[in-house]
UniProtKB/TrEMBL annotation, chain B:
Presence of the UniProt keyword Hydrolase in the record: yes
UniProt KW keywords: Hydrolase, Membrane, Metal-binding, Metalloprotease, Protease, Transmembrane, Transmembrane helix, Zinc
Organism, as annotated: Streptomyces endocoffeicus
Domain Peptidase M48, first and last residues per copy: 105-184
Keyword Protease attached: yes
Species lineage: Bacteria, Bacillati, Actinomycetota, Actinomycetes, Kitasatosporales
Cofactor(s) the protein needs: Zn(2+)
Name of this protein: M56 family metallopeptidase
Length: 127, 309
């Protein structure tokens, strides 16, 4: 059960990438149906809408009303989507430092003053 | 068993002096190994003793699975019969196990979510993400990756970028996430081990800094890279209580890199402050291990005796 859950979620992450890639090949804002056709037509219409909505929430696509339906435009590329998703992970995890050793941590004002002093002295030593 | 069963719960206090001194006087690699190992042993012993106390504690509860001979007066004499401690150990052990399970679960979740975020990108050792906010992370995994934002790279010169990549690669190559996870779990198992966690978080960064300095051949460049990127990401939320320590971890790292290279020795000479602290921690660790072993053996012997009567 748990494995299937993980598989499904990872699948959705990959689908997001595929949908975004398809959308980026579109010459103009396109409908959900166009995206579905582009992906081979095997996905359900609702699945494509779900994924487009998730991309919209992440800020990777925009949509506008055209008649009675929405047309979609990609605003980010694959790296941009990865960046948006990474931001969500980083913002969402308060104790991420325990897992992802960060290059630097936050700097209280007092530390910032000390650090500026240290860097200034290091700069002087160079000249 | 007696008082020995309580010792491993408080003996982690003997590691406090070394947690403070090791970061200043030992090579960061030696300090990370020493402090993580000490924290691990203390945590295991402390949890084991909590479990033993719990076994004794459950003996007072109706319907416990212990043999009938357990309630014999001779047996009750041999084990600490303090009802309050025995019963308090039950929720304490549950809390420890729950906290550790939560740490492991979160660890896995962050790693999984970060990996999923990068799905769709080519599997290169370095992933550069278009993001204005400056960050750089080492993402452990079967193929470890360095994740860095364009905002971070934009603020650094080319030599400093090389320093940053060398630092992150050192994290991955030496599997620093395992040390961090160990001390993270230890701090949950026994709150007295928290100073060791703080110390190892710092020494692991110092270790990567020194590796980076060796890789690119300039301690000063690494110092500048650390300093510049810290100033860029200034204003990020700080997890620790500021104001207690005279100097936060980042200025200390920069100051250490601008100072002389650390000596390569693993174990400090005995008759110095740090030597005495190291020996104190070593003696404490051994005492903790022996006490918990003694208690465990005694309890098993008692259980064996009561079941064979």
């Amino acid at each position: 059960m748990k494995d299937r859950e993980h598989g499904r979620r990872r699948g959705q992450g990959e689908l997001e990438v595929q949908v975004l890639a398809a959308l980026r090949e579109a010459p103009e804002p396109v409908s959900t149906g166009w995206v579905r056709e582009r992906l081979g037509g095997t996905l359900a219409h609702t699945t494509v809408i779900t994924i487009l909505t998730r991309l919209l929430a992440k800020g990777a696509v925009t949509r506008e009303k055209e008649g009675r339906t929405f047309v979609w435009t990609a605003t980010a590329d694959e790296a941009g989507l990865a960046a948006l998703r990474m931001r969500r992970v980083l913002d969402g995890e308060s104790d991420r430092e325990a897992v992802l050793a960060s290059f630097v941590t936050g700097l209280p004002p007092q530390d910032e003053r000390m650090l500026r002093g240290l860097l200034e002295r290091a700069g002087e030593a160079e000249e | 068993m007696g008082v020995f069963v309580f010792l491993p719960l408080v003996l982690p206090l003997t590691a406090w002096p070394i947690a403070r001194l090791a970061e200043q006087h030992l090579h960061p690699r030696a300090a990370t190994w020493l402090l993580s190992a000490v924290a691990g042993v203390f945590a295991v012993c402390s949890t084991l003793c909590l479990a033993l106390l719990m076994v004794v504690g459950t003996a007072q509860l109706p319907g416990n699975p212990l043999p009938d001979g357990w309630s014999d007066p001779e047996v009750r004499e041999a084990v600490p019969s303090d009802e309050v401690t025995g019963k308090a150990a039950i929720p304490a052990l549950i809390a420890v196990l729950a906290a550790c399970a939560r740490v492991l679960w979160r660890h896995q979740r962050v790693r999984r979510r970060a990996e999923r975020a990068l799905a769709g990108l080519p599997a290169t050792p370095v992933a550069v993400l278009p993001d204005e906010s400056p960050y750089a992370y080492a993402l452990p995994g079967t193929r470890g990756r360095v994740v860095v934002s364009t905002g971070m790279l934009a603020g650094l010169g080319s030599a400093e970028r090389r320093a940053l990549f060398a630092h992150e690669r050192a994290h991955l190559a030496h599997r620093h996430h395992r040390f961090l996870l160990t001390v993270q779990l230890a701090a949950r198992a026994n709150p007295f081990l928290r100073p060791l966690r703080t110390a190892v978080v710092y020494t692991a960064e110092r270790w990567a800094d020194e590796e980076a300095a060796q890789a690119i051949g300039s301690r000063r460049t690494v110092a500048l890279a650390v300093g510049r990127s810290a100033l860029m990401s200034g204003g990020a939320p700080v997890a620790t209580l500021a104001g207690f320590a005279a100097m936060g971890p980042v200025p200390r790292r920069v100051a250490a890199l601008l100072g002389p290279a650390p000596a390569g020795r693993i174990w400090p000479p005995v008759f110095t402050t740090v030597g005495l602290a190291a020996w104190g921690a070593a003696v404490g660790t051994t005492a903790s291990a022996l006490s918990s072993a003694n208690s465990a053996v005694t309890l098993v012997a008692i259980l064996h005796a009561t079941t064979s009567v």
